[in-house]
Amino acid sequence: MSTTALKLVALIFMALDHIGVFIPGMPIVLRWAGRLALPLFIFCTTEGFSHTHSKKQYMLRLYLAGIFMDLLNRWVSGIGYTLSDFSPVKLGIDNNIFRTLFCISVLCFLIDSFQKKNSNRRKYLAAYCVWQASVYLFLELLGKFLSPSPLSEEIVRFLPNLLGSVYYLEGGWVFLLLGVLLYLVKDNKKTLATGYLSFCAVYFAVTVTQFLPRVLIKLQYFAYILGNNGQTALSTTLSDFELTLYDFCMRHSGLATGYSSELNPFFTEYQWMMVGALPFLLAYNGKKGKGYKYFFYLFYPIHIYILYFIGGWIGAMS
C-alpha cells in the first residue's frame, strides 16, 4: 500500500469514528473502528516528513492548517449555538488533528537534526524545551490573571494552538510519543511491528490497571495524612505536586482523567484497539501514490462540520 492508500484507509476509519461521535444512537463499533485512524495518519506524517522537499514548509503547512481549523471550529460551533431546534451530541467542536501532526513533525525535525549531526542540533533542542516550558508557564499564569469571561476563555483556549504548545492536543501527548516511535522504526518492518505492539501493550496495561490514577489517589491520601498530623507545609507541597502530576499525566496525556470502578476496555477505554492498524502499517510499500494532498486537508474539516449539523438536527427531532 502506498502513502495515499494508507491515508484513504485512515480517512474511512476516521469518518466512521466521527459518525459515531456526532450522530446520536450510533453503535460503539464505529468508535472501535476509529481507533485505527490516528496511528495511520501519524505514520503517513512521519513518512511525508522524511520525503518532503522542504521540511520547514511541511511543518508550516500543518501549523497553519491547525490555526485555520481552530478558527473554523469556533465559527461553526457559534453557528450551532444560535440555531433553534438544534441539539448536537457535542456542544462544541474541538477536533484538530492538524495540531497533533504539527507537534509530531517538530519532534521529527529535532530527531532528524541529531541523526544528520546538524551543527545547530543542540540549539534546536534547547530552544524547543525553552519554548514549550515558557508557553506552559505563560498559559498557566494567564489563566489565573484573566478575569473569567467568555472572551478570556476563548483566548486561553486558542493560544495553545497559536503558540504551538504540546498541551491540549487531540489525542494527548501520548500520541507524540507514538509519532517519535514510528519515525524511528518506520524503515524496518520487524522493528516497526515490535515497537508498535509494545506501545499498544503498554497503553493497554496502563489504561486497564489504572496505574496513574491509583498513584495520584495515593499521593492525595498521603497529603491528607500529613495535613492531619500537623505537617501543613509538607502536605501542601505534596498536594501541589499531585495537581501538577495530574495536569501533565492525565489531563494532557490523552489517558482517562480519573479513577473509575466501572472502566471497561470495550465500552469506556478502547483506544488500545489501535493495535488493529498494524497490518496496514506493515502493508506499506514505501511509495507515495497519487498524493491528493489537498483533498485530505479539505475533507477533514468539511466532513466534521457536515456530521455536526446532521447530528444536531437529528438530536433535535429525537
> What's the N-to-C terminus distance?
42 Å
Give the low-pLDDT segments: none
Percent helix: over 70%
Order of helices and strands: HHHHHHHHHHHHH
Main sheet record: none
Percent of residues in beta strands: under 5%
Radius of gyration, rounded?
21 Å
Shape: globular
Number of strands: 0
Rounded mean pLDDT score: 88
Work out the helix count. 13
Specify the structural class: mainly alpha
How would you summarize this macromolecular structure in one to three sentences?
Helix content is 71%, strand content 0%. The chain has 318 residues and is mostly helical. α1 runs antiparallel to α3 (37-51).
Structural commentary:
By secondary structure, the chain is mainly alpha-helical. Helix content is 71%, strand content 0%. It is built from 13 helices and no strands. It has helices at residues 3-22, 29-34, 37-51, 55-82, 97-115, 121-145, 150-162, 174-185, 189-209, 211-228, 232-251, 278-282, 293-317. Helix 3 packs across helix 5 (97-115) and helix 5 crosses helix 8. The longest helix is centred in the N-terminal third of the chain and has 28 residues, at 55-82. 27% of the residues are buried.
